[in-house]
């Protein structure tokens, strides 16, 4: 019988993490989730609770002892836990420093002490800031994030690459576009559905609605991660993961109104070219590097958003 990998997934009860856990369990691994359940939900993982190959640790990455213990006898870590709310940085300047930078440092220390030598990190397009090259390739620079969230994730990347070099840790860093799909708990699709549920006659859209971003379905995202890990064996592998096109905020509004079967929705714009300070209005990642090793997304951004709306509305 093949040896089962012992995998730790931080943030495994969250939106992306729980889909990743489904996939890792399905492939016959032994999976432990480490999650403080701040935005993670038991309903996303409850189907694994009775499985002897599955363990849930309710723990916080800011608790060094807890993460040290969780890293004992682990082969590979997917570090998915974070505070992913980009907008929060405009009102709380501490949260991304703690939940992203400090949390990642604590995890890397736990890895070092326990001799865990493989990490996967879920990074983001926001590390590029307001890029002058679109689609934006992995080697774009200088990297000047415009949100505290983007800054924190870039700091995490830097910590990971430096730990990789200093302590012989192999790392895969994935810079995601917007990821959507069933179990989404935040982001524009969720916001628009919630707003239209409250008032089906009008939809407030932050900015001028012309923000253009790339959206990828979560199952495609996980497929891409595992594809790259099987192919790329460098000490540090950095890959963008996104769709090949974009969709505007207004078109997301139209798509969601269609899926909710609302024909008379008035769109009200708050104005300005971006949703809030720190919002990058135009984002598309260059995925040539991913294409070159043989992976391509199937869905357009519009299809991913539509499928997400259907799933969240219970119509899939
Ligand atoms: P999410 O909020 O659903 O998942 C984060 C998980 O981490 C939750 O289960 C939460 O309870 C857990 N968590 C948070 N702080 C913790 C802590 N201190 N200790 C232990 N657990 C903690 O978010 P998501 O959308 O699934 O995002 C997952 C990852 O992907 C994040 O690292 C995020 O930055 C990254 N990312 C997401 C997107 C996206 O569009 N969703 C885009 C780019 C990058």
Count every helix, treating DSSP H or I runs of 4 or more residues as helices.
Answer: 9
Q: Structural class of the secondary elements?
A: alpha/beta
What's the overall average pLDDT, rounded?
A: 97
* Spatial sequence of strands, sheet with the most strands: 3-2-1-4-5-6-11
Determine and state the CATH class of the largest domain.
Alpha Beta
Reported CATH architecture of the largest domain: 3-Layer(aba) Sandwich
CATH topology of the largest domain: Rossmann fold
User: What hetero molecules are bound to the protein chains?
Assistant: nicotinamide-adenine-dinucleotide
- Cα separation of the termini: 37 Å
List the helices and strands and how they pair.
Elements: E1 6-10, H1 15-26, E2 30-35, E3 54-58, H2 64-70, E4 76-79, H3 95-114, E5 118-124, H4 148-167, E6 170-176, E7 178-180, H5 188-198, E8 202-205, E9 212-213, E10 215-217, H6 218-231, E11 236-241, E12 247-248, H7 249-259, E13 266-269, E14 282-283, H8 288-292, H9 301-312
Parallel strand pairs: 1-2, 1-4, 2-3, 4-5, 5-6, 6-11, 7-10, 8-13, 9-14
Antiparallel strand pairs: 9-12
